[in-house]
Amino acid sequence: MHRRRFLGSISALAGAVALRARDAYAQAKPLAFADMHSHIGILSAPADVHATMVANGVLVIARKIVADLPVIRRIPNQGVQQVREPAPGELASRFDATFARLQAEHKAQNLIEIVDAEALARVMSGQNPAVVLAAEGADFLEGDLKRLEAARRNGLVHLQLVHYRVSELGDISTERPVHNGFTPFGKDVIAACNRLGILVDIAHATSDGIAQALEISAKPMIYSHGHMTGTNPYWTQGGLRARAIHTPLAKRVAEKGGVIGLWPLTLQYRSLEVYAGALLDLAAAVGAAHVGVGSDMFGLPASVIPAYQQFGELEQLLARRGARPEDVRNILGANYLRVLKNALTV
């Protein structure tokens, strides 16, 4: 055999062996991480979610459908805003179509959908990746509680109440308040979520709205993605500061058993190491049992967690900073799964 061809064959064989070894390692890698807020394959190009999760040790992802997507836009120097009113039925039909598409993807990729407490228990005791069907904003309800009941029957288990549209449910953190928090319908939705077995997510809500949700909900809630601030956020502060949760409210969420999810926005955290420190600072403030990661993957303009491989790196960074193994496990997923289990148990 010609020497160059022989060396090429050896190189190709070595590459194939290395690839098989890498894949075998990925398959054997324990699945433990959970992301409370992701748009993978929704706001991004179609993705092999199953393979991505297995390769990076991710057990559960909450895939968030953006309910008000048809009527919002990112405007330069102004952030994300509503640009028009939706047509009757528009948001409902768009949500239903996206929901059906995701379910078809999950079936094709052999991804488990967590639809009840029993399914969650099986996922937590096994090593098969699973997804949570979630909504970012309840705009798809269009003021009809029966649509929430129908969505729950179809598999919705995680509902963020508001997003970037002042809606039938209430105010949002980045626009002038209209309802002084949640509307009567919004408050009914919170109570219905408790009854139906849906996890309530208060991200994007105003301080008044969060305080009202804390009074209404009999179940722990999550603030899936954002950050905590010592000053009370206000809509005129701009998207970054207005989106925060006030420290006293974050502590109340924790006291009721909930979880605060920190987003990995590069504008705030210039590196993954800085973000790891921020997670531990948040844990010191509200307790390590009440902190989680909401990556907002493919939803942020720039992120220190652009892909799921960063979860493994983050695990190492937290350990090097002296975090207890139990706290690392909780922050990187177990806290979210605990609160989800509570919500599903009705």
Outline:
By secondary structure, the protein is α/β, with parallel strands linked by helices.
Layout of strands and helices, then pairs:
Blueprint: H1 3-28, E1 33-38, H2 49-55, E2 58-66, E3 72-75, E4 79-82, H3 90-108, E5 112-113, H4 117-125, E6 130-136, H5 145-154, E7 158-160, H6 184-196, E8 199-201, H7 207-216, E9 222-226, E10 228-229, H8 239-242, E11 245-246, H9 247-255, E12 259-262, H10 272-286, E13 291-293, H11 309-320, H12 325-344
Structure description:
The protein is α/β, with parallel strands linked by helices. The termini are far apart. Helices cover 45% and strands 16% of the residues. The chain contains twelve helices and 13 strands. Strand 10 (228-229), helix 8 (239-242) and strand 11 form a beta-alpha-beta unit. Residues 1-27 have low confidence and may be disordered. The longest helix is centred in the N-terminal third of the chain and has 26 residues, at 3-28. Strands 1, 2, 5, 6, 7 and 8 form a six-stranded parallel β-sheet that branches.
Q: What's the gyration radius in Å?
A: 21 Å
Secondary-structure element pattern, one letter each: HEHEEEHEHEHEHEHEEHEHEHEHH
Q: Ranges with pLDDT <50 over ≥5 residues?
A: 1-27
Number of helices: 12
Mean pLDDT: 92
- Largest β-sheet summary: 6 strands, parallel
The shape, in one word, is globular
For the record, give the distance between the C-alpha atoms at the N and C termini, rounded to a whole number.
70 Å
Beta-strand proportion: 15-25%
Structural class: alpha/beta
State the helical fraction: 40-55%
Oligomer: single chain
Total DSSP E strands: 13
